[in-house]
Amino acid sequence: MSVEAKTFTNKSNGETFTKGTYNGIEVLRRDKDGYINATKMAREAGKLNHLNRFLNSAKMQENS
Question: Domain of life of the organism in this record (predicted)?
């Protein structure tokens, strides 16, 4: 398993992030507090496909 990390700065707000991979999923970690968007990570891993189908369903679109 190879691990790769790269640091970059978000130019719009000056925050720095480290970009890496976890089990083949691209992950961004905010350097100041270690925050990782776990929902995005899970969605990319296919764990929330049922939620994605619901949010994109015609029934849900009618209510928005």
Answer: Eukaryota
Residue 57 has what DSSP assignment? S
Are the CB atoms for 39 and 47 separated by under 8 Å? no
In the chain, where are the structural domains located? 5-57
| Residue pLDDT, tens place only, 20-46 | 877 777 888 888 899 988 888 887 777
* Cα dist from 19 to 11, 40, 49, 55, 64, whole Å: 15, 14, 24, 28, 34
Q: What is the CA radius of gyration of the chain?
A: 16
Residue 10 one-letter amino acid: N
| pTM passes above 0.85 | no
